[in-house]
Amino acid sequence: AANKKLLVLPGDGIGPEVMHEVRRVIDWMDRRRALSFEIEEGLVGGGAIDAVGSPCPDETVEKAKAADAVLFGSVGGPKWDSLPFEQRPELGILRLRKDLGLFANLRPALVMDPLVEASSLKPDIVRGVDIMVVRETVGGIYFGEPRGVETLPDGKRRGFDTDVYHEDEIARVARVAFDLARKRRGKVTSVEKANVMQSGRLWRAVVGEVQKAEYPDVALENMYADNCAMQLCSRPKQFDVILGNNLFGDVLSDLAAALTGSLGMLPSATLGAVDPATGKRHALYEPIHGSAPDIAGKGIANPCAQMLSFAMLLRWSFGLEEDAALLETAIEKVLAGGLRTADIMQPGMARVGTSVMGEAVLREL
Amino acid sequence: AANKKLLVLPGDGIGPEVMHEVRRVIDWMDRRRALSFEIEEGLVGGGAIDAVGSPCPDETVEKAKAADAVLFGSVGGPKWDSLPFEQRPELGILRLRKDLGLFANLRPALVMDPLVEASSLKPDIVRGVDIMVVRETVGGIYFGEPRGVETLPDGKRRGFDTDVYHEDEIARVARVAFDLARKRRGKVTSVEKANVMQSGRLWRAVVGEVQKAEYPDVALENMYADNCAMQLCSRPKQFDVILGNNLFGDVLSDLAAALTGSLGMLPSATLGAVDPATGKRHALYEPIHGSAPDIAGKGIANPCAQMLSFAMLLRWSFGLEEDAALLETAIEKVLAGGLRTADIMQPGMARVGTSVMGEAVLREL
Ligand SMILES: CC(C)[C@H](C(=O)O)[C@@H](O)C(=O)O
Ligand SMILES: CC(C)[C@H](C(=O)O)[C@@H](O)C(=O)O
C-alpha cells in the first residue's frame, strides 16, 4: 500500500503515555498488515507553549495540512491555567479545527456489553446504547465576531460573543449526520434552542430543508437542547444520531459520553470537506477524554480511547475497515478477558496500568 | 395576616389541571391558617394567543407587577408550534421574566428518599442528591442584541445571536448563589466556557471577585459547562449550588432535574431584585416540567411540582416557612404512603390520578 502520512500530536498530560501504546499498535500494523505509515510528530498545547511560545505553532499547522490524517492526544493542565485567553493550550485544538476546516466532529457514545456496569445509569437504561453525536466545530459562538470584553466609560466591564451560522455551514454538517444515520438506524435528532435563538431558528429550518430535499428516507426529529439533556439522561436508547451546533454539541456529546461510564474508551473524529480536486479530506482523531493532569505520568491512564481513535482513523481516512475492526475486536476481547484500567475498574476484574493494557491489545492482535 | 395578592397563570396543557389542585390547597390555607390571599387569574401562553392574540398580554404583565407573587403553570403545545418566532407561547414566560426583572431562577434538584428508585441513575449515585441550580434569566443570549436571520445579497441566510453580560448582571446573580450556599453546604460551582467564550471569561472573573470580596467563607469552584454535564451524570453528589448563565443554566438545570427521575415533583422560583423603596421583590413560581400536551386533559398529571412551587412561594415571597414546610411534609407523607402518579410509578405502589393525589395531600394537611 502507498505510504500514508500521519501527524501524531501527543500533547499534554496523559496524551504522551496513551499515544505511546498506539505507536506500538502502528508499528505492529506496519509490520504485519499491508500498511505503511510515514509518521511525523509535532508540538501542540502546553508543551508547545513551553517549547516555542504558541499552543499551535505554524509548523504544526503546516505539518497537519500536509498529512493524510492527524492523530491528536489531549492538551492542557494546571500549569497553563492562568495564562491569558489568547495563549491557552486549548487554542491548539481550536486552531487546528479552524485552519484545516474540520467542521464535523463525530463522537460515538457506545456502551460495550462488558462495560455496562461502569455506567452511573442503571444497566437496563444503558445496555445497547449506541449514539453518534455530530457536532459542528468551526462555526457558531466559538469563532463568531464581534467578541470581547470591553470596559465601558464608567469603568464597568461587558463581555460578549456572537453565535452565528450561515445556512451552508448548517447544511454541510447536517449532511454528515444524515449520511451517518443512513448507515445506522436511520434517525437524526437535531438539537437547538429555536424557541429562543435566531441562529437556532435558522438551524432548524435548514436541517429540515436538507432532509426534505436529499434525505427523505431518514427520520428527522427536532429537539430543544435542554430537553435533549434530559432525554439523554433518562432514556438514552431513543437516540441514533444527534446533530448539534458547536456549543450544544460540546455539552451534549460530553453528556452522552459520560453516560456510558467509560470515557477512557471513547474516540472521536473531526472531518473536513472533501477537496474536489484531490479527493482528499483533512481529518483529526482524538479521544473524548482530556489530558487528565491528576493521573498524568502515573502509568494508569486508559489507552483504549486513543487506540480506538486510531481505529477510526483507519476507517475514515483510509477506508481500512478490516484493520479498524481488527483493532476494535482486539480491544473488546481484552476487556471481555477481564483486564481493566482504573477508570473502568469493577469488582472481580484485574486492574492493570497503561502499558499492560497496551501489551494485551498487541497480544490479541 | 395582611392580604397577599397572588396572580395565578395556569397556562396551557396540564397547567390548568395541576393548578386546580393547588387552588384547593390555597383555599385550605385560607381557611385554616393565618393567611389570606387575594387571587387573580390571568392569561398567558397559547391560551392567551387564542383569546387575545398575544402570548403575554399587557394586562397580564400589569397584573403581575401589581401582585406580591405570581404562580405560573406551563405554556406551549403542538397547536402553536408553527407560529412565527415572535408569537410563540414561550414568549409568555420570557416576557414576564424580562419585564418583572426576574433575574435569578432557582431550581432545586432534590432526590426524595421514597423516589430514589424513580431515577435512571443507580440508587447509590442519586440517594441524597440535593442540588440548587441558580440560573441567570434576563440576560445573555436569550435577549442580547443584535440578533436575527438575515438574507445576504446572494440570497443565502445567516442567523445570529449575541451572548452578552454586564459585570453587574453577573455579580447580582452570583450573590444569590452565594447567599443560598451559605444556608446550605457552603459551595458554589460556577459554570461557563471561559476557555472559548469572552462572556464566559468575564463571568469567571466577576464571580471570583464577588466571592473574594463578599463571600470568603463560601467555597467557589469554576467548571466548564461540558464537564459539568458529565459530572452531573456521573457524580451528582459533589454539587451543592450550581451557578450558570441563561443558556447553560437552562440546559444544566434540566439535566439536574432529569437525574432525580421525578420531574413531576420539582418546583422553581424566579426572583427579581429587592426594591429599596418598598422592600418588595417580584417573584414567579413554576414547576420545572412543561405543559406535557401528550397527557393534558387526561387527569393523570402529577400536581406535586405545582404544589411545591406554591410552597416555595410561601417561603420566598412571604417568609411563611412554617406553612411551606407543612405543605412539603404533607406531600412527602403521601408519597411515603405509597401513592404515585404515572410519571413516578413504581412496582408495588398505588397508581393515582391528579385529583386523587391532590385530595390525599389535602387530607394530610
Ligand atoms: C478544549 C476545548 C476548547 C474543547 C471545546 O470546547 O471544543 C473541548 O471541550 C472539546 O470538546 O474538544
Ligand atoms: C420555554 C423556554 C423559553 C424556557 C427557556 O428556555 O428558558 C424553558 O426551557 C425554561 O427553562 O423555562
From TrEMBL, chains A, B:
Chain positions recorded as substrate binding sites: 97, 107, 135, 226
Matching InterPro entries: IsoCit/isopropylmalate_DH_CS (IPR019818), IsoPropMal-DH-like_dom (IPR024084), Isopropylmalate_DH (IPR004429)
Residues binding NAD(+): 77-90, 290-302
Reactions performed catalytically: (2R,3S)-3-isopropylmalate + NAD(+) = 4-methyl-2-oxopentanoate + CO2 + NADH
Enzyme class name: oxidoreductase
GO MF, one annotated term: 3-isopropylmalate dehydrogenase activity
Keyword Manganese: yes
Cofactor(s), names only, from the UniProt record: Mn(2+); Mg(2+)
Compartment(s): Cytoplasm
Cofactor binding comment, as recorded: Binds 1 Mg(2+) or Mn(2+) ion per subunit.
GO terms (BP aspect): L-leucine biosynthetic process
Family in the record: Belongs to the isocitrate and isopropylmalate dehydrogenases family. LeuB type 1 subfamily.
Function of the protein: Catalyzes the oxidation of 3-carboxy-2-hydroxy-4-methylpentanoate (3-isopropylmalate) to 3-carboxy-4-methyl-2-oxopentanoate. The product decarboxylates to 4-methyl-2 oxopentanoate.
HAMAP family, per database record: LeuB_type1 (MF_01033)
Quaternary structure (record): Homodimer.
Name assigned to this protein: 3-isopropylmalate dehydrogenase
Chain's gene name: leuB
